[in-house]
Amino acid sequence: MKKGLYFIVILFVAFSCREGDLVDTEYNPTPYIVEGTEYLGPFPVPPDNQLTHEGIKLGQHLFYDPILSANNSMSCASCHLPEKAFTDGNAVSVGIDGIAGIRSAMSLVNAAYFTKGLFWDGRSDNLEEQALLPVEDEIELHHNWGDVIEEFKEHPTYPQMFREAFGIEDKEEIRKELAAKALAQFQRIIISGNSKFDRVNNGIGAFNEEQFVGLETFFDVNPLIADGECGHCHNDPLFTTNQYFDNGIQDAKTLTEYTDIGLANVTNRNLDYGKMRAPTLRNIELTAPYMHDGRFQTLEEVVEHYSKGGHATPNRDPLIRELGFSEEQKTGLVAFMKALTDTSYLDNPYVRNPFK
Ligand code: HEC
Ligand code: HEC
């Protein structure tokens, strides 16, 4: 009887003092209220990954921390720079080993709204799933999650931050899925909905002449000038439908000539060869060079492409054809796209680099 009691006491002491225990740190997450979405509307949040200050803060640190790369040289932010609307300014991105990928880094602004697949070809379903990929991608961070998790466990602050965000009771409960959830939370709060375009829509200020001609062309609202057709694929309010199209940029006369088959990677259908997700045009001024392979340096070149209609590829969308814009329309379209710039997301301290 007495022996049994000792045993329980020893067990209790051993249990409460075991290495890795985090219960001394408080777990009381505060819901995060997203701001700046008045014009954009609400976005979906997975029931098992609600936004909290603690989750976002953890995600913010992970996003900017080179701990996620094999040689501690790169973080997510190396290819997704906040001041460039989270792109990197390169035609295609280069990873930790100096090897170039085949595609251009995508903007993460308003990513919460990209609900019909992520990446140019839509091969990832959501931000939680996507966040697992760059760490082990051989031409990106080229690390492995097993080692990253071990580094988290030994880190002076991450174990507590995982506890505050997700309520784990022991370091051993740190999982890559929790890191991915935090990264997803961080990305969901990068909101941009206060550009000149939004302000004019809210009755504040007005477009200048150039911007107005651009708007008329973009949304096909003036029967006296050539239609731009842009708004069908890059529609208001996100300036993307999140749908996939072939906009005639690849010089492919047959299916086999597409250098990047895009959506067909995922669906395997002939009809999807060369289709890419139409990207948002919000903050497009900041994300040069353009298209999935960064082939165009300027917005003027992009507009010239749409004016001429590009290549007659097998899957080119009917909206992409020789539209023949006037010079006024070309300058107008560029001016209108620049009216979609809004960097107020940088004012949110949760969005910026926490290590600076
Ligand atoms: C070496 C550069 C590089 C690094 C590092 C990197 N990315 Fe990316 N990211 C890219 C490129 C390139 C694409 C487009 C790839 C494609 O479509 O195949 C992309 C696409 C994305 C997308 C899809 C966006 C959309 O609109 O569909 C998300 C989300 C994303 N990255 C988040 C992250 C996160 C989170 C990290 C860190 C864990 C990260 N990236 C690290 C280059 C990088
Ligand atoms: C049929 C749908 C469609 C129409 C119409 C269309 N686009 Fe696009 N747009 C796309 C797709 C798809 C891409 C990405 C293609 C790629 O990279 O392979 C794209 C890419 C872009 C890009 C580069 C985005 C980036 O992040 O690199 C800009 C800028 C752009 N379009 C502007 C316009 C303008 C301006 C118009 C009207 C003159 C227009 N688009 C009409 C589907 C369309």
| Topology, number of strands | 2
Quick one: overall form? globular
CATH H-tier superfamily of the largest domain: Cytochrome c-like domain
Strand content: under 5%
Oligomer: single chain
Derived from helix and strand composition plus strand pairing, the structural class reads mainly alpha
Report helical residue fraction.
Answer: 25-40%
Instruction: Return the domain count.
Output: 2
CATH topology of the largest domain: Cytochrome Bc1 Complex, Chain D, domain 2
Characterize the main sheet. 2 strands, antiparallel
Give the end-to-end Cα distance, rounded to a whole number of Å: 60 Å
Low-confidence stretches: 9-17
- CATH architectural group of the largest domain: Orthogonal Bundle
* Top CATH class of the largest domain: Mainly Alpha
What's the arrangement of strands in the largest beta sheet?
Answer: 1-2
Rg, alpha carbons:
24 Å
Count the helices. How many? 14
| Ligands (ions, cofactors included) | heme C
Helix/strand order: HHHHHHHHHHHEHEHH
Folded structure, characterized:
The chain folds into two domains: 18-192, Cytochrome c-like domain (Cytochrome Bc1 Complex, Chain D, domain 2, Orthogonal Bundle), CATH 1.10.760.10; 196-338, Cytochrome c-like domain (Cytochrome Bc1 Complex, Chain D, domain 2, Orthogonal Bundle), CATH 1.10.760.10. Residues 9-17 have low confidence and may be disordered. A two-stranded antiparallel ribbon has the order 1-2. It has 356 residues and is mainly alpha-helical. It is built from 14 helices and two strands. Helix 2 (53-64) runs antiparallel to helix 7. It binds heme C (HEC) (2 copies).
